[in-house]
Amino acid sequence: MQPAIQAHNVEMVYPNGVSPVHALKGVSLEISDGEILLMMGPSGSGKTTLLFVLGGILSPTGGRVVVRDVEITNLDRREKAQFRLKHLSFIFQGFNLFKALTARENVELALHARGVRGRSARERTQQLLERLGLSRQLDRLPRDLSGGEKQRVAIARALVAEPDVVMADEPTSALDAENGLAVTGLLRELARERGTTVLIASHDMRIAPFANRVVQLNDGRL
Amino acid sequence: MLTLVSCAMLTPAVERPSGHERPAQRMVVLARKNLFADLPRFIVALCAVVFAVTLLTVQTGIYNGFIWSTSLMIEESKADIWLAAKQILYLEITLPLTYGQLAKVRALPGVARAEPIIMRTALWRSPRDTLNATRVVGFEPNGTLFTPGNLAADDLEKLHQPFTFFADASQLEALDLRGVGERGTVGGLRAQLIQLTHGTQPIVSPTFLYTSLETANAYAPSALSFLTPSSDTRPAPLSDSDSITFILVGAKDRNDVPRLQHALQRAVPGTQALTRRQMLDLTRGYWVRRTSIGFALTLTALLGLIVGAVVVGQILYVSVSEHLKEYGTLRAIGAADRFLYGVIIRQAVYMAVLGYVPSLILSILIASIASHRGVPIQITPLTALIVFFLTLAMCVIAAVFAMQRVVRVDPAVAFRA
User: Fold this and answer.
1) Residue ranges of the domains in chain A?
2) CATH of domain A3-96+162-216
């Protein structure tokens, strides 16, 4: 398999007055195209920081990150944003749905941000939400959705633009066990269908069976 | 329990966004819904816009009305040329001409009509002994070049009765009169109000009393005449030596006006022949310089705009601050700055448009009430259009801080629980 993501000796130090925090200590990692990788570790181990660095949200203080053959550590803020828009999608711990928008509009927004026109966006959104079993919830606001439904909308938003890589940060932390497993299974199913690379940062051991590979992060080291 | 849907139901692969699509046009729903999500706050912002826009519209209307009002007589005239003493400062300050010069003007080739106008300051004394400064405006009731208030010929005929006058309805209180038919005195001579006009009183001038030429000529300017009231029963016709203020000229051919101006000045030495436009500019220019009204009204309108911009800006900024995680999510997705700007600008435009419409209605209402009090507030389509663009500019400029806030949102904020 062709590597989708490569991290070489990544360092991340947060300046914190006289005692800077060394969040990542020489992390090297290779994730193949279409692979589902679970990064596990306790709180403060550096999982989210590594996700930020691999996703181009944060610039590491040392090392290199290459995603889809592009060294994103060399990109400026605007170029990183363009790169994320084109190749990456995120699933957030708290769903991060727009409160004022319906399920359909939340998903469409991800297409709008990528410049997809109205009718095309509407059709793609509807098909995917129906595919995720949300055909009756299309026009509901997030406050009228259950936790599992919200996370499915969030998954739809992450996948609707067919990104190369999906990065999920604690995707099950706001869900009960049953819903957590269900949405993780759904994410794996859709990712496999589309050949999407999935990177999950979580400390939820129950997700492990859904991943192709599990890596453990402790105190900033793999 | 969630239901996993079979892979067999997977929809066909969808195409990637194409290069010709327009990202900036796709944020309408987010802009609108985020703005309307907190209705009370939106209404506060709208009130600020309504306040600012109404102030701006009314101030502009007052300025327009003031300028229009100062040159009302000129606006109402159909003359192509106003012949005045060459020292003329503006409509109401000039040196006199003589009635005898009218004949010279009428004799000039290219002159279709020439009519004299007398403007004279006089003291009014009401039947209840109230004094008031007035300006007697004498004109030919049968003339065609000047008619106050576009009155009908039958009404104008009434002015042939000696010592009668028309006045604007808004001036009844100033003249201490209760209605048509009441009498007072002007310069010691009787004066009877026989007709009310509408929209004929400049707001900056003493009360205009419209009379026939003969009556205007008879009303002496001296206040001393009050002590020796005249017993005249009929004003005398004008003689060549009597002073008049202007000669209004109608040209046979409007294309001939520039030549006619020169001919008039040569034929009547010591005069200045001004086109209607030149006369308007002279008078309006005088009042704008003399009163600095443009500056004063602009200053007030500017204050209104600043207040409006501050409130709109603050509301948009708070709205952005309250939706930081949402904007952070967009930033994490990689939404372009212009997409985020677009959301805020769209919200600003919503505020501008939704604030502008009630403001315009309110301003027209205020103008209508003011006109009944004799204060002209002119809201023209051009004024409305200019105010609309100023409103848009105010709201968009107000959105700048909110836009700055949005583009500075750290995408990492989206990952915080």
Assistant:
1) 3-96+162-216
2) 3.40.50.300
Full DSSP string of B17-39: PPTT--GGGS-HHHHHHHHHHSH
3-class DSSP state for residue A36?
strand
Q: Residue A24: CB partners within 8 Å, gap ≥ 6? A: A10, A11, A12, A46, A49, A50, A53, A60, A220
**pLDDT tens sequence across B257-280:** 999 999 999 999 999 999 999 999
pLDDT in tens, B341-378: 888 888 889 889 999 999 999 999 999 998 877 788 88
* Residue tagged 């007709």 (tokens): B195
Judged by CB atoms closer than 8 Å, whether chains meet at B2 and A101 is answered as no
- Are A49 and A12 contacting, i.e. CB atoms less than 8 angstroms apart? yes
- Parallel/antiparallel/unpaired status of strands B246-251 and B111-125: antiparallel
Q: What amino acid is encoded at A81 in this protein?
A: A
Nearest CB among A52, A121, A183 relative to B2 is that of A183
Residue B7 burial by Cβ neighbours in a 10 Å radius (0-12, 13-18, 19+)? exposed
CA separation for the pair A29, A3 (Å, rounded)? 10
Tokens of B234: 């009929």
The DSSP symbol for A116 reads -
- CB-closest option in A113, A183, A189 to B7: A189
Output the pTM of the full model.
0.72
